[in-house]
Design a protein that fits this description.
- By secondary structure, the protein is mainly alpha-helical.
- The chain starts with a helix and ends in a 16-residue tail after the last helix.
Length: 167
């Protein structure tokens, strides 16, 4: 897949998947209206989580295009295993970014319904990763994925980056 096609495919997938999960559904649940005001510092934390989540999400999508030469969409997967950038610290930065966006929105808007929705999304994502993504990556990339999985945590980021094993 050319980088141009990967970039276009990734942009479309960004709108369809994370766009629906972090944009459309929260809008349906809240109408983007704020609830009763929570403690103001929580709203600041929410804004920081939204900004960080968006930055991480865009970084992760870019890694799929540049390093992986593909998209995060299962229908157009990468040609190469993506292990650089934030993927050196945690295997699932994209999913963590989505959860950060949802929790951030909940705090920013003072809307507990978004915290409940984030919990449902979190459980669904873990099930998807365990039941589909990890077996598929093992099948596609074999030993290199197994080594990566064994050296980089799935959900709790490491403090130091993974260093590739010696060749």
């Amino acid at each position: 897949m050319t980088n141009y096609r990967a970039a276009v495919g990734s942009a479309l997938f960004l709108v369809v998947a994370p766009g629906v999960v972090t944009g459309l559904v929260p809008f349906w649940l809240t109408g983007w209206t704020a609830g009763a005001g929570w403690w103001p510092p929580l709203r600041v934390v929410g804004a920081v989580l939204v900004a960080a989540g968006m930055a991480v999400l865009l970084h992760a999508f870019a890694r799929f295009v540049v390093e992986g030469r593909g998209t995060p969409a299962p229908v157009a997967p990468t040609a190469e295993l993506v292990v650089g950038g934030l993927y050196r610290y945690v295997r699932n930065p994209m999913y963590l970014a989505v959860l950060s966006l949802l929790v951030g929105q909940a705090l920013l808007l003072s809307r507990p319904v978004l915290l409940a929705y984030a919990a449902v999304v979190g459980v669904s994502v873990v099930g998807f990763v365990r039941g589909y993504e990890e077996p598929t990556l093992h099948e596609q990339f074999g030993r290199s994925y197994d080594t990566y999985r064994d050296t980089v945590p799935g959900w709790g980021p490491r403090l130091s980056p993974r260093r590739p094993p010696p060749a």
